[in-house]
């Protein structure tokens, strides 16, 4: 049975409350314990009673960093378009300033961690679809399970107020142990059954691809990513943990994420890293240009070779490489980018892929890098501003958090953001799925339409439980 023996939180809590009284403002207290191994999906699932709507899940493709948060100790959110990246960083920095952090481990992602993301375009007119997700939304979880290189750590974070007393910390001690004990209760979830699939305005979408193509020769615009939506209706409430478990089993090569807010859950399996920062080492990814997987090994290799030599896809990819290179060179000492793309093969699709390594300057923060990179031409287009304006104008879809940065940063400034692709938004017994594709001068609306069809598959399979 898993228990945390230490009761230091009581004394630490009293110290934090005294500090809050002295300063006349809240003080963050965080403490870390090492645990025996825990199944990350079970941890997410045990939060469904007490912390429904306040959970997140993150796994990187190699499974080096897995983070699951239950409960919200502090929420940072804003609907303001200007400075939104900076504001999150500022509020996080302010909270950390007088914090008491008891963490003897050096691993990234252990200790207080902020998890969340940004909407794709804060200036796009808002619809009901994303009403639960403001333009920037982050949680500092009450309980964070970090599985870093297969070692498990539990961080408890509490924002202590001047008026708090010892009863708060006694309650937390009990709650934490109950939570860990409940890891051993086994409950089976039943998959909701898909009743209806509505494709949102497919003909209008193809027309918008044709219209945009006409604007891509001669003018300033080189590339615009256009996305569309499927709305699915199920026979009963969709359980996020079931879909998440399916994604986890089915999409080994991708980032697996889930992010709840007020009853909705945004989740997916994205192959695309936006940026990772570990001390000064920066990793980013150029991912654009797509073809289907083959039914046989031979066909798969042949399709991959075709993609590697296809001019339309190479151009679509090259725009991303150019932009990421330029953006990173502004804030890095060094940027290393190979001259030619390779293939990234995920379960349903293969992409042109160029990995990027950089060395950040000392004054470069992770959120600054996110701001500079978002949206890359894999999600927005080129030039950035004009492409985002075009999307705002022609796209029917309210993208919300789709195609936007989602991830985490720890109290030492390390962290990682993925681009939230191959994703869906669960709302009760309905879900919206999103997929887009890079439109360039040589694009044909029918084949772009089929490409988006491939990109819906990971979420469709996970939701159907196949
Ligand atoms: C916009 C999406 O994919 C991007 C990432 C990889 C390949 C892409 C493409 O070939 O069009 C897209 O730029 C999506 O999955 O919704
Ligand atoms: Mg494409």
TrEMBL record:
Gene Ontology annotations of biological process type: menaquinone biosynthetic process; salicylic acid biosynthetic process
Keyword vocabulary terms for this entry: Isomerase, Magnesium, Menaquinone biosynthesis, Metal-binding
Residues given in the record as Mg(2+) binding sites: 316, 451
Record protein name field: Isochorismate synthase MenF
Catalytic activity: chorismate = isochorismate
Required co-factors: Mg(2+)
InterPro entries: ADC_synthase (IPR005801), Chorismate_C (IPR015890), IsoChor_synthase (IPR004561), MenF (IPR034681)
EC numbers on record: 5.4.4.2
Domain Chorismate-utilising enzyme C-terminal: 202-455
Gene: menF
Pathways per UniProt: Quinol/quinone metabolism; 1,4-dihydroxy-2-naphthoate biosynthesis; 1,4-dihydroxy-2-naphthoate from chorismate: step 1/7; Quinol/quinone metabolism; menaquinone biosynthesis
Native species: Neobacillus mesonae
Function: Catalyzes the conversion of chorismate to isochorismate.
HAMAP family given in the database record: MenF
Family, as annotated: Belongs to the isochorismate synthase family.
């Amino acid at each position: 049975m898993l228990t945390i023996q230490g009761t230091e939180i009581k004394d630490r809590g009293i110290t934090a409350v005294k500090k809050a009284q002295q300063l006349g403002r809240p003080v963050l207290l965080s403490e870390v314990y090492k645990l025996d191994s825990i199944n990350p999906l079970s941890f997410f699932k045990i939060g469904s009673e007490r912390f429904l709507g306040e959970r997140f899940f993150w796994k990187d493709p190699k499974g080096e960093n897995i983070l699951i948060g239950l409960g919200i100790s502090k929420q940072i959110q804003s609907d303001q378009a200007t400075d939104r990246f900076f504001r999150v960083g500022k509020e996080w920095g302010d909270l950390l300033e007088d914090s008491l952090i008891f963490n003897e481990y050096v691993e990234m992602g252990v200790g207080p961690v902020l998890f969340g993301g940004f909407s794709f375009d804060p200036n796009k007119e808002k619809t009901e679809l994303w009403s639960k997700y403001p333009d920037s939304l982050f949680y500092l979880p009450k309980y964070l399970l970090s599985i870093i290189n297969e070692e498990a750590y539990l961080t408890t974070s509490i924002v202590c107020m001047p008026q708090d007393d010892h009863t708060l910390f006694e309650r937390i001690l009990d709650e934490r142990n109950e939570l860990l004990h409940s890891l051993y209760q086994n409950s089976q979830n039943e998959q909701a059954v898909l009743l209806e699939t509505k494709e949102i305005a497919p003909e209008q979408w193809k027309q918008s691809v044709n219209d945009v193509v006409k604007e891509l020769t001669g003018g300033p615009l080189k590339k615009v990513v256009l996305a569309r939506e499927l709305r699915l209706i199920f026979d009963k409430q969709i359980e996020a943990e079931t879909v998440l478990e399916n994604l986890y089993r089915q999409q080994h090569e991708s980032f697996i994420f889930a992010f709840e807010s007020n009853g909705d859950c945004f989740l997916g399996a994205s192959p695309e890293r936006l940026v990772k920062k570990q001390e000064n080492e920066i990793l980013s990814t150029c991912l654009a240009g797509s073809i289907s997987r083959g039914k046989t090994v031979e066909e798969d290799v042949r399709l991959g070779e075709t993609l590697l030599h296809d001019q339309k896809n190479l151009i679509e990819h090259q725009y991303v490489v150019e932009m990421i290179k330029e953006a990173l060179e502004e804030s890095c000492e060094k940027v290393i980018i190979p001259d030619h793309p390779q293939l990234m093969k995920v379960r349903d699709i293969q992409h042109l892929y160029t990995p990027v390594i950089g060395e950040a300057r000392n004054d470069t923060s992770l959120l600054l890098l996110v701001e500079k990179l978002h949206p890359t031409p894999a999600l927005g287009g080129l030039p950035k501003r004009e492409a985002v304006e075009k999307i705002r104008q022609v796209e029917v879809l309210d993208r919300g958090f789709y195609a936007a940065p989602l991830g985490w940063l720890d109290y030492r400034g390390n962290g990682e953001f993925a681009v939230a692709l191959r994703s869906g938004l669960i709302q009760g017994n309905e879900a919206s799925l999103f997929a887009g594709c890079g439109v360039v001068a040589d694009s044909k609306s029918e084949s772009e339409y089929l490409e988006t069809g491939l990109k819906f598959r990971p979420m469709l399979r996970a939701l159907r439980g196949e």
